[in-house]
């Protein structure tokens, strides 16, 4: 099949176009190849040829009916491909033959944005002169000026501003041009944009503001400059929330100190980490953690993914930070975030030394909270046998219920960890305890196809007809995933097929 598609290029005609093989294209067309076939990385044959600078192939394809504006592939259209690659002759030919300059699609959105991203000023100017909408948004970065600012192409930034680009246009990954420039350390562009009306505190994109972008990427010169020109140090937005949290996460103590000296609220909450101290703990920067505490950071402030700084440090396995925080008043049992408490986070990640240290300093082994419910379930879910054993030896309730798995034995069964299942049973785990997504340990094992675990549980008293959880019974769970051997084994051990329940 001459039009069969597959692989990186999509089809025969696209592959030939990429290589500039006009003879193969001609032969392909004679055998019925679709000149507008779409597929693969570049989308169409004309886009493929345009991308690689094969103008003779582009012209041949146009003369034989190629749709010049057909969209597809990573860059959207042939003109965008040519613009991105810097093939001005092809760009001009396509425009002269009807290419829509403002057609949107692909990673860069438009031809002018694609050209701006790579610094092809000649193409940018040509497109503007031929009707390109300078403020058209689209693609990953939003507009042409943001693309140019991100790439550090100051000449293009200035040209675009002189021809009507909206400096404060918001869209795309970085939100605005000044944020894009700040994130990449392009001081000259940041300065130019401010002098021409850029809003220094405009929020948008993954960083939120220009100062957060500069702080996160370690551009202290730009951070200082932005503060001197009116940036709001405490403005919140973006993934990390604040400039001080961004700098703290990266361990850039110079920027952290500068921000504190210029009025940054050290306990301001927001973003993924919640607080600056939690960000520093997550980034395992003990020097920054210590500096923040010395300057008034609340070690028990709650918020963000980890909930508290001590939980963040425990999750990351930095015992030094854990110890420092405890010595400076951190509540070891404070509950918040996805992991609930510090000991649960440490147990989940397999940091046995921290689990032991926390227990010795008052951590409640059976405290419940977070996605995994408690420490023993968290450890069992990841197969940390040593931690499970330590917790059991120090008083963990082996049948404590909570979290998505419900119980430690269900978590171990879910993972197919027969050794751990056996250990838990030998130490008093209730095989038929009901809780969590799968309801019972046997249903969890059955759903995931762990036949050895299923058989072990049956041999040790699991009720094969117990109804609970999303699938209600073990046989239903096994059947839903096509585990015929387990279904047959369960039936042989008394499972009833016509029990009602489950999704």
From TrEMBL:
Q: Where are the ANK repeats?
A: 41-73, 74-106, 107-139, 140-172, 173-205, 209-238, 239-271, 305-337, 338-370, 371-403, 404-436, 437-469, 470-502
Tree of life domain: Eukaryota
Q: Which Gene3D superfamilies match?
A: Ankyrin repeat-containing domain
Pfam families per record: Ank, Ank_2
| Listed InterPro entries | Ankyrin_rpt (IPR002110), Ankyrin_rpt-contain_sf (IPR036770), Cul2-RING_E3_ligase_SR (IPR051616)
Looking at the keywords, is Amino-acid biosynthesis present? no
Q: Which PROSITE patterns match?
A: ANK_REP_REGION, ANK_REPEAT
The UniProt keyword set, sorted, is: ANK repeat
Q: Where are the transmembrane segments?
A: none
Query: What is the protein named?
Result: Ankyrin repeat domain-containing protein
Q: Which organism is it from?
A: Lentinula raphanica
**Lineage of producing organism:** Eukaryota, Fungi, Dikarya, Basidiomycota, Agaricomycotina
């Amino acid at each position: 099949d001459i039009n069969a598609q597959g692989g990186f290029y999509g089809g025969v005609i696209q592959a030939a176009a990429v290589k500039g093989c006009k003879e193969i294209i001609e032969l392909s067309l004679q055998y019925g190849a679709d000149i507008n076939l779409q597929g693969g990385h570049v989308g169409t044959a004309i886009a493929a040829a345009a991308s690689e600078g094969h103008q003779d192939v582009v012209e041949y394809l146009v003369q034989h009916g190629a749709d010049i504006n057909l969209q597809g592939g990573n860059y959207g259209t042939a003109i965008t491909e040519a613009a991105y690659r810097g093939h001005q002759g092809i760009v001009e030919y396509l425009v002269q033959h009807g290419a829509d300059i403002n057609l949107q699609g692909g990673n860069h959105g438009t031809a002018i944005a694609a050209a701006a991203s790579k610094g092809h000023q000649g193409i940018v100017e040509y497109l503007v002169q031929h009707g390109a909408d300078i403020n058209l948004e689209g693609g990953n970065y939003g507009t042409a000026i943001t693309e140019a600012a991100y790439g550090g192409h100051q000449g293009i930034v200035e040209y675009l501003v002189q021809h009507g680009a909206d400096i404060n246009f918001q869209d795309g990954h970085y939100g605005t041009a000044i944020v894009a420039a700040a994130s990449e350390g392009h001081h000259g562009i940041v300065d130019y944009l401010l002098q021409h009306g850029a809003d220094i505190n405009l929020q948008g994109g993954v960083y939120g503001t220009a100062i957060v972008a500069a702080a996160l990427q370690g551009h202290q010169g730009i951070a200082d400059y932005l503060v001197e020109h009116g940036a709001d140090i405490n403005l919140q937005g973006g993934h990390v929330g604040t400039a001080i949290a961004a700098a703290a996460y990266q361990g850039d103590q110079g920027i952290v100190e500068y921000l504190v000296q210029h009025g940054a609220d050290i306990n301001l909450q927001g973003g993924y980490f919640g607080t600056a101290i939690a960000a520093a703990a997550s980034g395992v920067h003990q020097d920054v953690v210590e500096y923040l505490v010395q300057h008034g950071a609340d070690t028990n402030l709650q918020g963000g993914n980890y909930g508290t700084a001590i939980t963040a440090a425990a999750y990351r396995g930095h015992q030094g930070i854990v110890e420092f925080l405890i010595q400076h008043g951190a509540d070891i049992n404070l509950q918040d975030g996805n992991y609930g408490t510090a000991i649960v986070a440490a147990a989940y990640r397999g940091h046995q030394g921290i689990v032991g240290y926390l227990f010795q300093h008052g951590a409640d082994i059976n405290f419940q909270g977070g996605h995994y419910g408690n420490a023993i379930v968290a450890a069992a879910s990841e197969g940390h046998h040593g931690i499970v054993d330590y917790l059991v030896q120090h008083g963990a309730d082996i049948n404590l219920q909570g979290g998505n798995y419900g119980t430690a034995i269900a978590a171990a069964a879910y993972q197919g960890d027969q050794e751990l299942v056996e250990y838990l049973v030998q130490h008093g785990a209730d095989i038929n305890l009901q809780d969590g997504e799968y309801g019972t340990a046997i249903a969890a094992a059955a759903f995931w196809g762990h036949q050895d675990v299923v058989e072990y549980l049956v041999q040790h008293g699991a009720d094969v007809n117990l109804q609970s959880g999303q699938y209600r019974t073990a046989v239903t769970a096994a059947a839903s995933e096509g585990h015929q051997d387990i279904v047959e084994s369960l039936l042989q051990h008394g499972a009833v097929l016509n029990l009602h329940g489950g999704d």
